[in-house]
Fold:
Amino acid sequence: VNTHQLQTPALVVDAGGLQHNLDTMAAALPGGRLRPHVKAHKTTALARRQVAAGHRTFTCATICEVEGMAAAGLGDDLLLANEVVDATRLGRVVATGARVTLAVDSEATIDAARDGGVHEVLIDVNVGLPRCGCAPEDAGRLAEMANAKGLSVRGVMGYEGHIVGLPDREQRAHLVEGCMQLLLQAHQAVGGELVSAGGTGTYDLNTWAGEIQAGSYVLMDTAYAQLGLPFVNALTVLATVISVNPAGWAVADCGLKALGMDHGNPRMADGAPVWFCSDEHITFAPTEGSPGYRVGDRVAVVPAHVDPTIAYHQTMHVVDGDAVLESWAVDLRGW
Amino acid sequence: VNTHQLQTPALVVDAGGLQHNLDTMAAALPGGRLRPHVKAHKTTALARRQVAAGHRTFTCATICEVEGMAAAGLGDDLLLANEVVDATRLGRVVATGARVTLAVDSEATIDAARDGGVHEVLIDVNVGLPRCGCAPEDAGRLAEMANAKGLSVRGVMGYEGHIVGLPDREQRAHLVEGCMQLLLQAHQAVGGELVSAGGTGTYDLNTWAGEIQAGSYVLMDTAYAQLGLPFVNALTVLATVISVNPAGWAVADCGLKALGMDHGNPRMADGAPVWFCSDEHITFAPTEGSPGYRVGDRVAVVPAHVDPTIAYHQTMHVVDGDAVLESWAVDLRGW
Structure:
């Protein structure tokens, strides 16, 4: 199959870039030092490539991701790094023999784990991002409560999500240390084998966590690309030029329903300025001095945020130049 | 089924609001005066409700939408109001007996229609939005070309998308007239029965077009809600509070992968200020003086832009209070 045969818009992964990212991360954080986050790609076939790179433990954000990973035989050690109030579906996954560990940060979420049939939990600790997680000084109490209710507490997690995207590396390094002091303080009270934290932006700076939950590294996006990390943009959305206006713009068939837009507009891989996106269109201008576009041309659009981009697509095509090597189902979508 | 049994995040449509919007539009633009745009909802079951309200002609934005509508028996008169460079799949739909009309704005897209087996086209005219459509003065030439290549030209379309969202009604009214003068000028050269244009923001101001392609009216969103239109917000995303922080915020399970974000953050239906959205979370604060939230509470999130919100979801639930009346597959997703 050639990329010109793909129905557009189409998610396209550069095979070489993907392998570079897998290799680079596996060298920096081998085996269990990385717990790859599947929310970034939602694709069990890509998770298998992460297994081939040496990682057998995974982080998930949704119940669907846990179910899909376990069903694909990738359930050695799945962490749902998120709170749920009904763990019944997770208990069913545990009953199939997969190992599922659930983040908890309150009595209600501890009760949900126990009532749903999940036996292992991690105490989720707030280290500064205003999101989930208990206060560090409350972690010990919650661990005791979980133990008292018959749960096994494997340790702590605490995601420094407010820091992973900061452009200044020195500042990231400084701030992550403060966050991890909070997490280690919680871990002293909680105990257990796991101290889980980090993301692509702090994968090599966070030397306090025992395992890093990075996900974006494997495909990258324009936001993370500004941090000077050793990972390359491996994902684009292939689009077709459907209209060219002599007044100076072109339109391709890749719009708001094919792109995560929370980080703003995508960029064109060829550097052409993007004017705006509509539901099914992107309007852009040829760069000065370029020959311009013709209807039918294929163009590559680089999304600003990979995760919500991928969640719109059913299929991810792995390519080498114009050759489609593999087509993977984005099979972990939904909730 | 009760809404409390729904897995969240869940798309929820208020049955009364939906019916109000259907009735209000059908009174203003009965029957063929409205060609409802299915891109807004991507749901054949909702299109059936539009048929029940008297509309039998539909507008689509993607090949998938045309295929799905025809397969659902809603193919009396489907307009793909968008250009394609390969119409093979549309030709297959035509061969099943459905009526498909395709927008064209260039020789390449005319050739695509002919080569793919689509027999009827509409000349897409640029009326000011920098997107698809030929120059008004070029429409006659393209119509002649289409005729010469054996296609039947049903008329013109020209979407005033740069105007539909302007907050000032007088200004909208003034500017839409200018756009439609361009479209009518093109129509004089093209001929044919159809002059198709308009959207929810101009549905009652655009008195020049023979039919209006409005879609958002049926569910509405926070962006269109600022225009003082007689339609109500009928769609919310139901979410579950999964974490409450004593420092003053709560977190629910409705994030970037459940919300179209190009128009900015959603709002909470109860007025609570939204802090930010992450992939699977929304962080918000209780309004002053409110009792706050508890883990497990259900909250309603009002998306800023309906169309790309719906495209993330597999199912749309029609509710009356806490009762789920029907659950509809969002069956027109993808491309």
User: Anything to note?
Assistant: The mean pLDDT of chain B is 97. The CA atoms of residues 2 and 323 of chain B lie 5 Å apart. Chain B touches chain A through 57 residues (CB under 8 Å). The helical segments of chain B are 15-28, 44-52, 63-71, 88-95, 107-116, 139-148, 169-190, 306-310.
